[in-house]
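Researcher: Good morning. I'm working through a list of sequences from a screen, and I'd like to move beyond sequence-only analysis. For each chain I'm collecting a predicted structure so we can compare shapes side by side. This is the next one on the list. No need for commentary yet; just the structure.
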Amino acid sequence: MKYDFAVIGAGIAGASLAAELAPHGSVVLLEAEAHAGYHSTSRSAALWHETLGGPLIQPLTTASFPALNDGGFLKARGSLSVADVEHLDLLDQMAGDFAGTVALQPMTREEIRVRVPRARPVLAAGLLEPSCADIDVAALHAAVLGGFHRAGGILETDFRVDAVTTWAKGWRIAAGARSIEAEIVVNAAGAWADVIAGLAGARPLSLMPCRRTIAQVRVDGSDVPADLPMVTDIAGSYYFKAEGPDRLWLCPQDETLVEPGDAAPEEIDVAIAIDRFERVTEWKVLAVERKWAGLRTFAPDRLPIYGFDRSVPGLFWCAGQGGVGIQTSPAAARLCAKLLLGVPSEIDPTPFSPRRSAISIGVGTETG
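Model: Good morning. Structure tokens for this chain:
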């Protein structure tokens, strides 16, 4: 069978886009693993966090709120960005970047201590983002895949693409002895997106797969507040959030460049997370109960890539979401679907174009 669209990668980005396209044509969703969302989607400590990713990402995040909230996938959490005296200017910059778009509340050292009862004095000031919420990633991904199936979409698992070639007026995509044909290929392969592009004859866009580590720890005492916001260092060296009265998730906000693959946590990164956490709070870590790692893939300018390839007709990019792929997935899927269908979008796609000069490293200076 020949499909109108073949979407390579069934993580949240590819699955959401496939679900948007399915009512408008025949769609096959191709997943290399036995289960969709294995590498990044299922390992994310995802939040709906309007300031995450910066002001160019914020419209996608904000536009995704109705679908996430109405679907019951959000749970109030709140976020507190904190700074030591050396990084107070970064709080000012954040406040300026989101003035008039995101409600942020300045916090003094004393007010931080109320929210984070064992905060050390090194935390000099902060910005509270009350609207931040946890995302039930598993439920969201399952709902998206369910909608895709109900609209007639086909999911092919264990389909590890090893060839993408032009065929008649479209493409033939092969995984060993299996193959399918499609008019348009959507490259939503996450950390493998540059690999897929190369197979299709396109120039890679210098995507950077990075390992991100999280550890669940048990701390002394049982005074971790149930309403503790996610606490994030404005300078980007840690975050932590509550998972119970004496448990937290810690992250050193590592971005270690790695080859695409099955990411695993390194002991040193877990140790760094604990050290940074204990430097800014008086809680002591008694045990590491779980640890895991996932991949976050960035373009050179850290913005997603949405749009048709600059030189290969019929190849569409949906990649480079970094750490914002889940929180932006509803709006990003709508944007990409409209670009594929030739329908105007309410969100300007220009900052995310594969033709932008910021991702032309090694492929010329064309801005297109």
